[in-house]
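Revision sheet: structure tokens.
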Amino acid sequence: MSRPESQLPPNLYYNEQESVKYTNCNRIINIQTQLSERAIQLLDLDLDECSLVLDIGCGSGISGFYLTQEGVNWVGLDISESMLNVAQQEKTEGELLLCDIGQGFKFRPGVFDAAISISVIQWLCVSFKKSENPYKRCTAFFESLRNCLKNNARAVFQFYPENNEQINMITSAALRAGFSGDIVVDYPNSAKAKKLYLVLQLGGQSSKKTMDVIQGLIEESDEEKVKVIGRQQKKIRKLKKQKKISQKSKLWIVKRKEKQTRLGRKVKKTTKYTGRKRNNLGLFK
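Predicted:
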């Protein structure tokens, strides 16, 4: 089966039909949730602090859903309007923006504490137009990311490179933009379970011109794999059953204000009247 990146541009590949299928497939949800969990582990965020994370290629909000469950505020970017429509229908907590990351993007400098991306950045290494230069798209992306991250922030990208050339292209563009980091490989001895994570750090001094490949998680026994998958599926079902914060409640409004404030927008001051239902019955007789 050919790779999605070799078939169509992402905004066309993830059309309405593919987006719905992608979101409703239990196998995909399970895999994407595990990848998100691992990426957040590599981010090493202080979950007791209020953090704002940029979810790059957020899709229908599967990774964002996990971020929300961890108490993390997030903003999602994606090139597929169909995927974002599904995310809105799922009432994800993150703010969603339509964006081609290869063209770069602009946020207030230093607004994000970290960034995460699941199964996305390999798309930057392919072109569907003669005018598109994959390396320039990678460079535009990492430079935009650098500008909106706080100093010493970390970014973790799980990705599926087709070959070493794509790995070199991505890491070279990241180093050129001012990042340092390594590639973490989970389950290196398994062709099926092997996963690559690009773990970047912004700030500090590094003279490295290449990135090291570090062994991450080792291969598990078949029995342990079954147990892990079972636990993960139970966790997904439990998270789906949990009630979300009701819209327009005080907690929902306060969380929304915090997010808007972090993005540099003006919001009204929170008072004891915030979220209180207005009773107009006394105005009319």
